[in-house]
Amino acid sequence: MTQAPEDAALRRAVPPVICYPNDSLPVPDLALYAGARAGAEKVAEVLAPPREAASFEVKAGQFFRISCVGGPQVGDLNLWNARELGERFYSGKTRALHGTHVTTGERLWSSFPALRPMATITDDSLSWYGIDAFGGSVHDVIGTRCDPYTHNLLSGGQYHHCCHSNLTRALADHTGMSLAEAEPHVHDVLNVFMCTGFTRDTGQYFMKASPVRPGDYLELFAEIDLIGALSACPGGDCSAEHSSDSAACHPLLIEVFAPVAGALAGWNQPPVNGYDRSHGR
Ligand SMILES: [Zn+2]
Predict the structure, then answer these.
(1) What mean pLDDT is reported for the chain?
(2) DUF1989 domain location, by residue (predicted)?
(3) Ligand 1 centre from 217 Cα, in Å?
(4) Are strands 41-48 and 205-208 parallel, antiparallel or unpaired?
(5) Is the pTM of this model over 0.90?
(6) Is the per-residue pLDDT at 23 higher than 90?
């Protein structure tokens, strides 16, 4: 370790500034969404079985709810623009804009060059959780997704029910693509119900048993036409480990709700980002 300079304490005492102040972001009209949701009817549902993923479609202006049904369980969510799979959920930028965890009123942003809200969180039964004494919180956009490559790197072996593989199979089945074609479209996830943080002493990414219980849910409003895939993570409640069949795992329910005609008067799909893409030439 290097020798600390004389002014080390002064340098450490500089207060932080927020990287991306987000008070200039467009504000979702949550009251309009709540009114539309109140009269909405369920139009579809699908169950993601334990250690498997399910795919679903949500039209712009519809809602989808992810519910814990059986027991504490984490879900790994991927979202794509249903018309253009190249536009997909961008967890890193969502984290930069909103923080390490997301809840009601925050958006799931899409990749460049669109960089627009794909979905807005309209309801979260775990919003009470806040940030615990360990620095942990729920609905993580820190982590990536459990995958067989990292598993092989760290432990060796072949495990086929990591979220990465589950999402790959679900997208392939949904679109008719081969596994090889589908895999590059799988991306870093929203870890629904996952409770995580960084250790204060070593800065390491930690997880702890999710506080989710049967009946808890996260609900989102689709800002554009979406294909979604949700994997019921082999880590179960993510209290111990990933990438094996040893954790207790439960299904997750996805339900889609359609508002009645006219309920979203005044709402428009968000346009793609305004940058002209000339990159200085
Ligand atoms: Zn997983």
Answers:
(1) 95
(2) 49-227
(3) 18
(4) unpaired
(5) yes
(6) no
